[in-house]
Prior knowledge:
elongated; 8 strands; Thrombin, subunit H; 6-stranded antiparallel beta barrel; alpha+beta; 2 domains; 26% strand
Amino acid sequence: MATLKKSVESKAPAGRAPAPAPPKGPRLGPELDDYGGLEHRKFPRAKMSVPFRLSIGEGDEVRFQATLSSHNVSVSGAFLESTFFLPIGTEVSAAFVLDADEDPVLARAEIVRQETLGRDGRGRSGFALRFVEFFQQSEVTLAKLFLGARLKLFAEAYLSSKRARSLGSELERCVDALAAWELKKVTSAESPWGESTA
Length: 198
């Protein structure tokens, strides 16, 4: 475990928050979070508790660090459980691990909303982050959380087709499969994220 944590932390760019170790156990796919229900979101949110390492500043200028658990995660942001708050608009470096076999997700994020428990003690306490920029193409790991199984099924079916088998190289098959996926996205009533667009 110490070796994994050390290797994960060493992949964080200089001045960025190193990622905590990933959650244990197999991931069976995300359970979607419909908390609130009325807020329109472009991307679905997975209900999952993942340690987020946050920091403000770089190198010797780091002036804030904390590790908080997420309530949910999406390609566009996350809600972190917290009893303390930073001002809305604050930018933080965020690092988190979704899969032990993948590099950590590294991002710059902005605090966009705060929530506190109601007087009756109900609700949740924490703040929402919006991802502003990703580093080292780590957003692909995040997208795979939602699209991986669906893409794998599509690719397996498409690459076994007569058309794909007739192409001369792996690159041609890859481009052809991507074109077919994009065509399916615009001709289907179902979103690639698994929700109906009708």
